[in-house]
Amino acid sequence: MGEKAKGRGPLPPTLPSMLHHHIPIDPRFAFVIIFLNVYQKGTVFPMIRDVENETLPREDLEALQLRRLQAVVERVYHLVPFYRRRLDEAGVKPGDVRTLEDLRRLPFTVKQDLRDNYPFGMFATPMSQIVRIHASSGTTGKSTPVAYTQRDLETWSELMARTLAAGGTHRGDIVHNAYGYGLFTGGLGFHYGAERLGAAVIPVSGGQTRRQIMLLQDFAPTVLTCTPSFALYLAEVGQEMGVDFQKLPLRVGIFGAEPWTEAMRSEIENRLGLDAVDIYGLSEIIGPGVSVECVEGKKGLHIFEDHFLPEIIDPATLEPVPPGEMGELVITTLTKEAMPLLRYRTRDITSLDYAPCRCGRTLARMHRLRGRSDDMLIIRGVNVFPSQIEAVLLETPGVAPHYQLIVDREGQLDTLEIQVEVDEATFSDEVKQLQALAKNIERQIKDYFTVSVKVRLVEPRSLPRSEGKAKRVIDRRQL
Amino acid sequence: MKVEQISVFLENKAGRLAEVTRILGEAGINIRALSLADTTDFGILRLIVDQYDRAREVLKEKGFTVGKTEVVAVEVPDRPGGLALVLQILARAGINVEYMYAFVQHSGKNAVIIFRFDNLEDAISLLQKEGIHIYKGEEVYRL
User: What ipTM describes this predicted complex?
Assistant: First the structure.
């Protein structure tokens, strides 16, 4: 984007003016503020809301994390019977946490633990301290409730204000918030964050697409927040209604709550005429506001590490993976009061990048989600995620994104067959061309995973389609 | 001088070939010639039909992957050494035959062979120069 000159509305607040608005900034950092203000004058405002906490040097951040980790372990040990039991079983006392390395000695928390303690067994505060209860969608079982104290809501609002700011939102913006309001954390999370930031929120929630298109034209919001698939749906319906999105003042979109791809980002940006950034969160941890991409970088999501301590583990061995490698994201909440969680296994597959970002944040960036650990296959000892195979297929010109993985065992050996649909772009009347296509995919997968696979070409639409999640993997191994 | 051939991707599953011929039959399309190349996993059915566009349309409607290739229909004397003569001409000129198959029907006393070349134009001009008769598309569809 960038070709379209859009009205930016009132100027964003300057950093000094932010000092008057509930942003605690250590006087020691005053020089930074003056410097940034002078440096950035007339150019784009650095969209960092909490300069102190979002740009901490690593050692200061780790010192803060350790203090907070010690406090949270102490609290859950004394306040949550479930954690006392788990910590006792692990032979760890709160006083044993002396360095961040000691995190590895703490027990994991999994979704089933929340179900086992349904409904309120994981809460660390009495109901008299709790002011809000949300619940997870419950798509994979009974929904699990999560709770917030007044201070948790403050923290969440502040983190969502940071999130919106990282995406390029500021005071004077109008935020069209099409995340669902209700038990789901998306709608209210964005709502409170936008208000905290000083932007105007339209709490439109989900559904009534044609009415939403009307509001996008009449109320002229500058920021769109919704799921990426809904953003594309809006583009489609708007197009049918003859709306020219390039003429609307929409400037940025903050999209999440479901995995999406770089290809979808380009399509959304082109069709809606805005900058699209990815946001990540889950209700068990806080809701949206765990991590977000900065609009300057659009390369990985900054985790608010002063509140959430991330780890990446191998889902099979539960051991940490080497830095930068892919694995399951595990989060320990550092400041949550009502429902703190130790080493919560998110099941989401990503990797962490600690390299400095051009936006100035020192917070680690997680790679856009690469899949779920539930989908992970172990083929002859190698961890393989369907999403990785999908990525290889998408890079192969002409291959349709419809595939199915068949895992089987011949004798003692695991076999992986990838069924790929042949469409008109890849089809040839010559056998050798089609065989070369299959061989080419096999070779690329082998290069990537060091696992030999067999590619079988199948007719289009012979692989099952489903409305929601496609059934990508069939495991025939009798283990 | 070129003939339009339809190719259809088939999985190696019982009934797929029957399905294609059924669809074409119900649409009133007559198959003039066909060949099936098969591997352990899949097959490629190549067809010359009397109504190319209609055949393509009905097969795509039913979800088949359909391709279009231009091939050459060559008249070959129906006697010992007839085909060898044509192939020798091609071999001398270094023209490679990707695949070929025979027409079911004869044209008078001669056989009709379908050739697929990488370099179609060169093959056509060579054969014509050597006095080999090549059919026009319309002739072939009506044979």
Answer: 0.85
- Inter-chain CB proximity A430 and B44 less than 8 Å: yes
Tokens of A133: 């209860």
> How would you class A403 by CB atoms within 10 Å of its CB: exposed for 0-12, middle for 13-18, buried for 19 or more?
buried
This prediction has a pTM of: 0.70
d(CA A449, CA A451): 5
Q: How many independent structural domains does chain B possess?
A: 2
The reply to whether A364 and A456 lie within a common domain is: no
Residue pLDDT, tens place only, A83-128? 999 999 999 999 999 999 999 999 999 999 999 999 999 999 999 9
Task: Name the residue range of residue A439's domain.
Answer: 376-475
Gyration radius of chain A over CA positions: 24
Distance from CA of A57 to the nearest CA of B (A): 57
Cis before A119 (ω within 30): yes
**Residue A450 covered by a domain:** yes
Number of helices (H), then strands (E), in chain A: 13, 21
For residue A429 the two structure tokens come to 């009347």
Dihedral sign (CA A127, A129, A131, A135) = negative
The answer to whether the Cβ–Cβ distance between B65 and A422 falls below 8 Å is yes
Give the tokens for residue A291. Answer: 């991590």
